[in-house]
Structure formats: C-alpha cells, structure tokens
Amino acid sequence: MLTAAQARAARALLDWSQTQFAAASHLGLSTIRDFEKGRRMPGHNNLAGMVRALEQAGVILLADEGNGRGEGVRRR
C-alpha cells in the first residue's frame, strides 16, 4: 500500500515537512516519524489516511511491478 521510502519521496516531491504530512493525514507527528524511520508500521486506517493525503495533493503511488525498479512515486 505505502512504504516508508514512498512516504519520504512523496513528501520531497510535495516539499512537505513531516509536520505538514501529519496535518494533511490527520495523524500525529510521531506516527509519521516512526513510520518513516521504520520503527513501526501504522494500522490500516492510518496508512489509508496517509495515502489519501498524498493522492489528494497530486501524488501517484507506483507499485513494484517486478521489473526491478521497485515501488515509487510521481506527480499527477
């Protein structure tokens, strides 16, 4: 659904701080920090909130299609 690397890349694409991402996702800053550092995996609803915030801001999340490129992000 969303990896920590995708979250960091999407924030960079949007020029968002972790604080801005947390606000847009309606989550606490510690949830974003811990996820991006690999400390913990948020629950389904929290991940869905992150994805929704990124997609509403114009980010497209790219899945790993087994072509050696891995997952990624791009702007709509």
TrEMBL record:
SMART domains: HTH_XRE. PROSITE patterns: HTH_CROC1. GO terms for molecular function: DNA binding. This is Helix-turn-helix. It comes from the Bacteria. Pfam families: HTH_3. Residues 8-61 form the HTH cro/C1-type domain.
